[in-house]
Amino acid sequence: MNASPLSPAPAQAPAPQPAADRGTATLYGGVTNRRVTVRDLAAAKQRGERWSMLTAYDALTAGVFDEAGIPVLLVGDSAGNCHLGYETTVPVTMDQMVMLSAAVVRGTKRAMVVGDMPFGSYQESAAQAMHNAARLMKEAGVGAVKLEGGERSARSIELLVEAGIPVMAHIGLTPQSVHALGGYPVQGRGDEAAHQLLRDAKTVQQAGAFAVVLEAVPAELAAQVTEQLMIPTVGIGAGAGTDAQVLVWTDMAGMTAGRVPKFVKQYANLRAVLGEAAREFAAEVTAGTFPAAEHSFK
Ligand code: KIV
To answer: 189 is in which domain, residue-wise?
Structure first.
């Protein structure tokens, strides 16, 4: 068994041990019970080992992903549209991100938890970024923060890193700019845009980011960026040539209503399963067949 901290759990994973017994016991993938760190991710890049990241917004699902061996969980501001019922990520607040991130930290033992900095929480100044990143670290207990922007966010990244806060950068399509972009178009198309993307990637690396998300960029360009960077790239809609891959969990598991983006693969159809369970429950209550004798106290 490969004992890398980034190994996923085997498909037939042994039943998770009760929390009280976990202590120093190994968990999924033969990994000791400790959180994944930025050093593990840097070492994985050196070894050419790919890893996965999923979003999570609550303790219950985060615990499932942790036990499945997902090494990095992102409390994305995609919570806005995937969890809180907004149309975009723009309305999400710091208080909401602190609450959701704290729940994900509480629900996990081994994953690195990355807390997203929502729109308006870091663009004003590096000092504002520092204040809000510190909230995510202190109040929620995350191991790292993520913020959008390449060159435009470099000063904030530098300040956070100098203060000891690991920063994941996010370039390419930056959903917090949805209104300025007029939607969610693929980025980095054409020579000038491709050069800008590469400049952004190198700038966030130089500023001290430990990883960078590349969202909605042509696969070939993402592979070139990955080759030229020392830090891991995390792709979403960026082809197979990045060091890691992230998906929004509700897309990955088939919870999302309606169409999902082209780059999503649905590994389950939870929306149908859950809907069916709810319909069956309601039908049995209506018919008087639930609760039955075995669900009742004598
Ligand atoms: O908020 C989010 O979920 C993200 C991922 C799509 C990378 O930023």
So the answer is: 19-267
User: How many domains are there within the chain?
Assistant: 2
**Could you tell me if 178 and 278 lie in one domain?**
no
pLDDT tens digits, one per residue of 175-187: 999 999 999 999 9
213 and 167 in contact (C-beta within 8 Å)? no
| Nearest atom within ligand 1 for CA of residue 175 | 8
> Quick one: residue 30, left, alpha or beta (phi over 0 = left, psi -120 to 50 = alpha)?
left
Same domain, 178 and 110: yes
Task: Tell me, yes or no, whether 10 lies in a domain.
Answer: no
pLDDT of 263 over the 70 cut: yes
Segment 138-156, tens digit of pLDDT: 999 999 999 999 999 999 9
User: Which residues form the pocket of ligand 1, taking CB atoms under 6 Å from any ligand atom?
Assistant: 55, 74, 76-78, 116, 170, 213, 215, 236, 246, 248
Residue 148 known to be catalytic:
no
**In the predicted structure, residue 23 carries a pLDDT above the cut 50:** no
